[in-house]
Target: Sulfotransferase
Amino acid sequence: MSSSTINSDHRSPLMQSNYKLFTELLSTLPKLNRNNPPVDLYQYQGFWYLPKVLEGVIQVQQQFQARPTDIIIAGWPKTGNTWLKALCFAIATRKQHNQTKNPLLTNLPHNLVPILEVEILNNPKIRETLHHSVLSTHMPYTSLPKSITTSGCKIIYICRDPKDTFVSFYHFFRRSHVLSTSAGGSITDLNSSFHDEFDLFCEGKTSAGSFWDHVLGYYKASLDRPDMFLFLKYEGLVEDPVFYVKKLARYMDIPFSVEEELEGIPEKIVKMCSFESLSGLEVNKTGKYYVHESYMLDNNSFFRKGNIGDWKNHLTPEMAKKIDEIAAERLGGFGFSFGQPTAP
Ligand code: PAP
Model:
């Protein structure tokens, strides 16, 4: 998506005036031209953004009012957000929906647990239209609106080994670009820019900003305010999903009752939200995810392999070493390391 694809059609007068302010702001921000694919990124509060995403971030900052009961799922893209949303939605709404008629069977998890900065542009009254209190965001901690950080709501953060995150991001980004422009590119171009993308990921210059600063921002905040955060790792969820589903329910203040545990509800939720189950649903095989007027994704782009360690099929030992060294350098000093599950 290039800045030229932004248009202000179909906006209300209020949105038109916000949009004008937004384009004025854009012209003042540091800009990074990317050639392959051709996108402009803008730096705002230390993170690089695609313009449309930044427009949503600013709207969230200006308009979103969190409630103390909100549960915000946060994570850098491709770290397990879709899975975590499905699990939290299933936990939060388990009294309303049984397993056979669950909305997760007919909806992409992103349509049930909206991404704040995406949804707010389509639907400014995002809170009023939800029947539960689980929301999500890719926004960095330091850019969250005050109402989230001060309202008492809870944040569930998910992170993932950066080597697998990068590989997943690379495939997704190439694919979404192909889908988002008519000129596109081709999935067969994959190797041509793999090394360039790798360097940009290491430098934090991706269309989703710096992975390192994202994890660090939330991790540091979680050390300061442990009650406000549940910090999860994708690898931990893979290793013991039932344990983490129970932990999530306790954290969300809706623990499973003895009867529910005897009925095997946590196990049923894990099964319903597994990669095999979700990726096999018709909606996730053939449906589309509408992001905004000029950007649509195939639902199946959110389900690729769902494995730990796929990086071994894509990164050279030198690339893996480089990522591990950056992780140790950027996060090790705070006592954080990737890959190992959080202690039960
Ligand atoms: P998003 O940020 O665009 O929402 P996100 O869901 O965080 O993406 O990450 C997608 C990754 O989670 C994909 O990983 P892969 O590319 O390495 O395969 C996707 O396959 C994986 N994923 C999606 N759903 C599940 C699931 N139910 N269980 C395990 N992994 C999953």
